[in-house]
Each structure stands twice: as C-alpha cells, then as structure tokens.
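Task card 7
Instruction: Convert sequence to structure tokens.
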Amino acid sequence: MRARPGPAQLFNYAGILAIHVFTVWGLSRAFTWRHVALAAFAYFVRMFAVTGAYHRYFAHRGYKTSRAFQLLLALLGTAATQKGPLWWASTHRHHHKHSDQPDDPHSPRLKGFWEAHMGWWMRREHEATRWELVPDFAKFDELRWVDRYHWAGLAAFMAAMVWAGAWLGIGKLDGYIWGYVISTCALLHGTFTINSLAHVFGSRRYATRDTSRNNLWLALITMGEGWHNNHHHYAASARQGFFWWEIDLTYYVLKVLSWLGLVWDLRQPPARVLAEGRAARGREAPLPAE
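Output:
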C-alpha cells in the first residue's frame, strides 16, 4: 500500500508544478542565444553532477578521488534538484539489487511509464535515505550533512544563476528562469528517461536479468547513461560506452579530471566483458522470462 503524501511530498508536488509552469512561461517570452547558452551550460554541468558524481562515483564507486573533491562532487550534485548524494546512491543501489523485480521503485515493465519516469520519485515511501546501503560513504560526517541539507547547495546554485543572468546582461529574473527553471525541467526529464525509456527502447547486447537496453539518443541527452544494457551487465565501470563508437561524454570528462590528478583509478569493463560484447555484435540478447 502506498503511503499518503506528507508535507514534504506536497511541497515537492508544488515545486515540480511550478518548474513546469514557469518553463512554459519562460519559453513563451522573447529570448536570445545568451539565454539558451546559460540553460545549456547549467544543464550539462548538472547532468555531469548526476552521472559522473551521484551515479558513477557515489552509487557505483567507478573511480577514486580525494575526500575534498568527493565533498565538492557531493555539493555539485545537490544543484541538480535530485536530493542528496547518499539518498541518490542508496536508492540506485536498491534499484540494481531489485531491477525489474517487484521491489524496484521505477520499473516500467511492472509499474508503467509515469511511475517509472518520476511518479516514484515523489512518493513518501521513497523519501528516506537507506543508510544501510551506503555504509562506505555514510561514515563521512560532511557527506551526511550535505545529504541532510541538500537544499543549501541548490539555493547556492539558484543564487549563482541570478548573478549569471545579470553578468550576461539578460537580467536577474531571466538568469533564474533559464539558468535554473528551464534547465532543471530539461535535466529532470532527461535523467528520468533512463528509468522510463532505457528499459523499453533500444538494443540488448548482454543478456541481463532485467530489460535494460542501449540507446544512442538517450546516451546523447544524458552524457553517456543511455548505454544502459552495458551498465547493468557491468555496473562497476566508470565507462558506460564500452566501445569507441559509443559516445560517453561523462567518461570523457572523468578522463580529463584524471589527467589533472583530481580523480584516478577509473574502472574499466574487463576484457572478458568486452570480448563477449564484440562476439554479440549484431545479435539481440533475449529478454528475461516474465
């Protein structure tokens, strides 16, 4: 039985509604390339925060970094309006453990498009951080603080977008609308397509126990997350586009950060996984039994 919405959920509903209403309002007004550039910048920086920090680092430990840069990644992730790093990581680890099974919070196979896309995200039963699933990061007091007060990083990002609007000459209000509201609307739906569409549309290289698929278009809008079948087959890899022709912008950014010494030990898919993938090229792996 689903829990009834509490005050936090009602606040979330109001916030999501406001983001969509003001996105439509903002797009209906006159805008310039500077508006679009600010929104694109805010989108891709925060998409990396979700994919490169929340997902590939906090959820899967696909690479190593220092305690200081780890904190910076956590703070950057809060700007994406997807709650705290430990909540995100624990929820995602739970998803992998139960992918496309009854306890999966966002399986389109079992719960339909809307619930998989974002309905689950706003439900009371998914509000709390599952501390038992993230003991490796819960030991850091600063990460627990960021997770609890994730709104602080978000507020700082909003203020930065107001300042950016003034600096670009488009005005503080338009800086907020384009830098935060419109880019956040796109960011949320872009991220959620992996839950709702990457288990429905695309190809299957590996025979996983779930319905995950690889999809180039989803990979482009999510900086590499669309290689979802690859990921579910070998989730520990910092690289989700296993082959050179699979565009993975998040991995490219991580590679540059490794050259700068900010991250290291980027985990790769092992040779056996790559060999299996090459052998399967042109063939579709079967879906799991109902």
